Amino acid sequence: MKSRTIVEIGGMISVIGSLIFVGVEISQNTAAVRGATQQEVSYQISEMYKMGVENEKIAYIMSQAYKGIRKSDLNETDYTRFWLFSLMGLRRIENIHLQYKNGFLSEDAFERIGMGFYQTPLVREIWEERKNGFEPEFVTFYEALRDGEKWKN
């Protein structure tokens, strides 16, 4: 009887030790996933900056967007070029939102978006034309974020 009790206590200690080990492993894995997610978000913005640096036309239209130009001020090719560039940024924000909802990014990830770009009249026009291509929940979230309102988690 005494040896059975000792074996059961040993088994319980082993199970508890295993659970602690699994918990530590999950915590480390979660931290690694969060780090990789943050790195990917940084990479995405770096790619957008790189496009602006390497593409004189995108850089020019971007500078004009900050000055208030609208779709009607651009020819069709330049507008399409900038439309695609802007959609890349909007999809980046959508990705950040999804990663935030899944718990891989914190709320401060939205502070590094560069919201001024998305508040320009030209990008607002692009958004109004294309927002139906996004999930309704994201549309509501994005518009609140862009307009400086508090969004629902």
Sum up the overall morphology in one term.
Answer: elongated
Order of helices and strands: HHHHHH
Computed CA radius of gyration, to the nearest angstrom: 24 Å
Estimated share of beta-strand residues: under 5%
Give me the secondary-structure topology.
Elements: H1 2-54, H2 56-66, H3 76-101, H4 115-118, H5 121-130, H6 136-146
Helix pairs in contact: 1-2, 1-3, 2-3, 3-5
Task: Describe, in plain words, how this protein is organized in 3D.
75% of the residues lie in helices and 0% in strands.
List its salient traits:
mainly alpha; 75% helix
Brief digest:
Helices cover 75% and strands 0% of the residues.
